TrEMBL record:
Coiled coil: none
InterPro entries with a match to the protein in the record: VWF_A, vWFA_dom_sf
Name listed for the protein in its UniProt record: VWFA domain-containing protein
Gene3D superfamilies xrefs: von Willebrand factor, type A domain
Domain VWFA: 19-123
């Protein structure tokens, strides 16, 4: 899994609105690469590192598995500690990966040309 989060190139003077569809299904607890305990732990580390460098962004984190579980919005960098706490509290859940449900819930959160949607999943 690779996460690319470009923050030093601006599309406009407006704040970015990023929507992350984050898979927390059971399969995410599978073995990651040799440097991480699981795919899920690797994903959490990659997200945390990417958000550490974010400037002027509204970030919606939508967690999903069989269903959409939560949608939380954070203003970065101001609310980075709250986002970090949220990420640390995430754990894989039982169930399958319903990407369509996540997409259907995340797409309406996109507002304009400065909106971006990211899918974070092993499915």
């Amino acid at each position: 899994m690779c996460l690319l989060f470009i923050t030093n190139q601006s599309v406009s003077a407006r704040t970015f609105r990023d929507v992350f569809l984050v898979d927390v299904s059971a399969s995410m607890s599978g073995q990651g690469d040799k440097s991480s305990a699981s795919v899920f732990e690797h994903m959490r580390t990659e997200l945390r590192d990417a958000f550490d460098t974010a400037k002027d962004a509204q970030v919606d984190l939508l967690t999903f598995g069989t269903n959409v579980f939560t949608t939380n919005r954070f203003e970065l960098p101001k609310e980075l500690p709250s986002m970090d706490e949220f990420l640390q509290g995430l754990t894989p859940r039982t169930g399958r990966t319903d990407i369509y449900a996540a997409w259907a819930a995340g797409a309406p959160l996109l507002q304009d040309s400065t909106s971006r949607l990211f899918l974070i999943s092993d499915g």
